[in-house]
Amino acid sequence: MLQILEDHFKAKGFTEQTPIQKAVWGPLVNGESIIGLSPTGSGKTIAFTLPLLANIISKDGTQLLILAPSQELAMQTTQVVREWAALLNLTVASITGGANVKRQMEKLKSNPEIVVGTPGRVLNLLADRKLKLHNLQTMIIDEADELLTDETLRDIQDIERYTSSDVQFGFFSATDKPVFDKLEELFGIEVNVIDVRAVDNTQGVVRHGLMMVNNSQKVAMLKRFSHIKGFKALIFFNQLPNLKYAASNLKHEHVNIAVLGGTQRGTDRADALRLFRQGKVQYLLTTDVMARGLDIADLPAVINYDLPNSALTYTHRVGRTGRMGNEGIVVNFGNDHDLRKLKQLVGKDFDLKAMYFANNKLVDQRPIMTGSQQSGAQTSTRITVENKPTSTKDANLTGSNSKNISKDKVIVQQPRILSKKEQIAAKKKARSRKGSQKNKGMRRKKD
């Protein structure tokens, strides 16, 4: 590592490289094409940035191209790479869809040494001859398991045709995919597979929980969670109508939220992410546009308002918490059918068990209720959290951040929410019982 980069590495508080950073350093410096596999939050961006910066020549055109699946991830990567590149007087340009293309063209006139972008916009600017890659040394495909599918795969193949035949490739991903076995066929290259997932322990303890709650009660539960001191969560939705419905109702209940959706303007999406990172809003509601790669420091919780349809999506959603050794919790909303389906989907990797929620706390025993409390109770929720290495003990998860979360299994539940039909039936039963007692009293008087 160059001395100036090493000094900055230590100044940022890093004591040593993560497994993926160590493993890919030599191959990348030597110009080898690789596949780097490591868990979410293990420092992949720095893993490919630092070794490649040492080979870039200042003022010699674009030599490093980094492709990301979303505008948000591309912007985050740009910020990370720019911080390190500036130490070597290298420039970085961000080229993404949803942003002002004229401004991007202006940036490219200065021939930045590094370009970070989304495949569609990069390809368009190559076709318009605004971006030139004749001096390109390396192409990095971040979140490769997503980018090497369907249309984006074709875009990347088309981008590769604008480069020289000896360009170096780096594919990085948290999950393995069959397409990685076809890279020689797709790009005419041989790649070395570097998989550190089995030895990487940079991810903190993440507890995976279930909350048994009907669709009509999900917003109410988010409202309750908002009263937990310091609670902050990234909330995932499968469909925009559900997101809009929840956002409208939470705003009506004066819960501070922001929304991040694919249909928003780029500036609005950037503002939502900034407000959440700065702690100015408690909830960030989003679709899977946020599920990959984004790093939100010390995020204590992820909530799946809508359960994901695949194990891969679940893995990337929950990877937003528990990053770089921090602890986290994942709460999944659903009914019996939903939760059974989720267990079938991810049961091999995540152990889902019950938890109790009461009095704005998560506790490991079912709350003991008096008779008056039982008659007045109208809510019931079950949460499930998972922590395989430890035994069940008490835990209080009302602290100001994720570090307050106990490392033990926790089971928390509050009384079940009665449906309107059940409430009406209960009232009828109570009236019937009261009438029966009255009739008995009248018969005694006659006797």
TrEMBL record:
GO terms under biological process: response to cold
Record domain Helicase C-terminal: where: 220-368
Biased composition (Polar residues): 370-404
Keywords of the record: ATP-binding, Helicase, Hydrolase, Nucleotide-binding
UniProt cross-references to Pfam families, sorted A to Z: DEAD (PF00270), Helicase_C (PF00271)
Assigned protein family: Belongs to the DEAD box helicase family.
Listed name of the protein: DEAD/DEAH box helicase
Record organism: Periweissella fabalis
